[in-house]
Amino acid sequence: MAVKIDIVSGFLGAGKTTLIKKLLKEKLGSEKVVIIENEFGEIGIDGGILRDSGIEIKEINSGCICCSLVGDFSTALKEVLRKYTPDRVIIEPSGVGKLSGVLEACGKIQKYADAAVNMCIAVVDSMKYIIYVNNFGEFFQDQINNAKTVILSRTQMMEQNKLSKVVNDIQKRNPKANIVTTDWWALKGADIISLAERGGDLNIENPPEKRLHSHTEVDKMFQNWGIETPKLYTNESIRSILKSLSNKSLYGNILRSKGIIPLEKSNWVQFDFVPGEINIKPCLPDYTGRICVIGEKLNTVELKKLFTGV
Predict the structure, then answer these.
(1) Exposed (0-12), middle (13-18) or buried (19+): which is 12, by Cβ within 10 Å?
(2) How far apart are CA 20 and CA 193, in angstroms?
(3) CA 5, 105, 27 angle in degrees (round to 5)?
(4) Helix 160-173 to helix 137-145 angle, to the nearest 10 degrees?
């Protein structure tokens, strides 16, 4: 049986990692799964979060796998198939990567490996859909246009008429895609997978947005800043820091910040920031604290002062 290649894409902070963890816990725990996880920036965060599940992680950090690293990505995927002989490979592309590029790279693998693209999911933050589709059209829309299944996150926070407008716009852009509007915590992982594996048709050989963007092109629109630090925080101090990220005039337009940091008394937390939302929860210790910030026109000097005090 061919190895299933599942792609779970989504713009910055949409909830890709959270969805993957749910599917692993509720349905895929009995399968031999390898995750290829790619982050925009040098400080990798999500690999550590997913590694808690006991799944093997192959991390690629120096750029988007669907940009300048298409060649390296293909090599990494071949290595995974050869070394681990998995039942399933889950690919989590960078939030600023193009899904069309990932599909094209996977299409090349299909020609000479016993593997086939199975699920192709785009996780979309319904609350920020209108803002993102207008401000980050090329990157954001590519994920929607090329997905078999679009899973909307945070729908439980939206008014019905606003949610309907989002769904209608997505249907116009990708009429063949299944669109999941139910809060995914109310759905079983098995049901999500069953729907996503059916999905619409994929045109891997010639996806609608086939042109690959260069890493330089991504850098022109998005910046990243990251740091490793042994600094000890408190829940109150990190929450105050994350609230401060909304100050665009001082820190730039922050689209996402995430990290794994130590607290006092040997506790650790994982934090996540997107505009208007902050999440902090306990996690397993890591070798040191790691912080990543992604956005536009970042003031890295002030960001370093904010997070480290120096």
Answers:
(1) buried
(2) 11
(3) 15
(4) 80
How far is Cα 143 from Cα 229, in angstroms, rounded to an integer? 33
Tokens of 165: 């407008």
Q: Are 20 and 8 in contact (CB under 8 A)?
A: yes
Please name every residue paired with 256 in a beta bridge, in sequence order, or none if there are none: 294
Q: What was the pLDDT predicted at 223?
A: 84
User: Running DSSP on this structure, what letter comes out for residue 160?
Assistant: H
pLDDT per residue as tens digits for the range 156-199: 999 999 999 999 999 999 999 999 999 988 999 999 999 999 86
Q: Residue 210 has which token pair?
A: 């086939």
- Any idea how long the chain is? 310
Instruction: Write out the H or E segment, with its range, that includes residue 94.
Output: none
CB 105 within 8 A of CB 115: no
Continuous H helices in the chain: 16-26, 46-51, 70-84, 99-110, 129-135, 137-145, 160-173, 189-198, 215-221, 235-244, 248-251, 300-308
H helix and E strand count, the chain = 12, 12
Give the CA dihedral 215, 96, 147, 136, nearest 10 degrees: -110
For 285, the 3-state DSSP assignment is coil
Q: Tokens at residue 119, please?
A: 């699920």
Note the pTM of the prediction, 2 decimals: 0.72
- pLDDT tens digits for 51-101? 666 666 665 554 444 433 445 677 778 878 888 888 998 988 877 778 888
